[in-house]
Every structure is written in C-alpha cells, then in structure tokens.
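Quick note —
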Amino acid sequence: SLPNKGIIAHLISDIFNEAGIQVEFEFLPWVRAFEVTAQGEYSATSIWMYKKDRTTDFLYSEPVLSEKFVFFHLKDTPFDWNEMNDLRGKSIGGVLGYSYGPKFDAALEEGVFKQLRLPTVDQNLRMLAAGRTDIYAEEMSVANYTLLKRTPELADLITYHPKPILENQSFLLFPKKGPNSKALLEIFNSHLEGFKQDGRYDTYFTE
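Predicted structure written out below.
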C-alpha cells in the first residue's frame, strides 16, 4: 500500500527499468515466497540475508540493504541483555521464515529461550503488547515504521534495546532453476553499482 510498493521495491524496479526490464511484484508470506521462487515460478525474491544453505537454490545479488535487528519490549517492563544466555527462559516473538543470525539460531536450538513465530510484524507487536511474548526480535526500521503507521495505538507502549542482535546485509535472490537468472543477476548487479556510485541509491532512503 506504500507509494511504489515501498522503498526496496521502488529501488529494484528502477534498477531494472534502467536496463529496459519491467518489474511486477507479488507479495507473499516469506516462507511461500522462498519456496515458489526456488522452483522457478518467479524471477527473483527480495530481500534476504545470507545463509549458506540458501545458496543451494539461489544466486545472491550484491548487497541491496543494510539492516539492524534489535529486541523490542514494553516500556514498563525493564529489559537488558548482553549475550544470548541473558535471554534464558524468555519467550521471543519472531516472523515466520526469518533468521536472526547464527548465534540466535544456535541458542534457540539449544533451548536457551523459546520463540513464537507469526506471519506479520503487526501480529508480533500486538502479541508483545498483550504480554504473550516477553520481547520481539525485528529489524529496527521495519518495526518502528509499523508502530508509527500501522499500529499507532501501540507506539507509546513499546520501545527497543539499542544493542543489535544482528547487523547484516540483505540481497535479491535469483533461483538457480530460472533460465534467465544468471543474466538478470549480472544486469542487476551492474546497475545497482551504478546507482551506488552516482548517489542515486542514497536518495531512496533519505527521501
């Protein structure tokens, strides 16, 4: 519902348009987007952080976005952490299909904490506000935008801890089963670099 379907969709569209390629977007849940694109039903899926197992099915573009994941919590519930063991016994909200980095994933696997995953950011913020989860792991800008624009009634209730869980780059993924994936990858990378070199890339975020 955002203008140009949001900043990243706008950027990707303009990069391909410069190469004479028109882009159409379909919005799907994360898990489904990954699965059907891996089968070659779509030309690409955006945007994903790097995980080695994803290279089985996909080719990675050059970095499209830098992201910072943090823990959100209720303002009236003090929260502090320094390492994963500090989260022992916590119930942590998360989005289906997300990875929050190898340290987080390993601690979850070891049972240091438990995680309740839901399809959307909105749902996770509401679960946090209702006390159904203790904290919620999310990309800082995404959650803050959602609080301001989609769940403004929660904005005065929720804040975040400044220590990042994960700082990472995210990429456009092209399916190895796609017959044009290698060519599209080269085109995208070349024009993305041009956008970064001449300053156009930064304008999508500053505006």
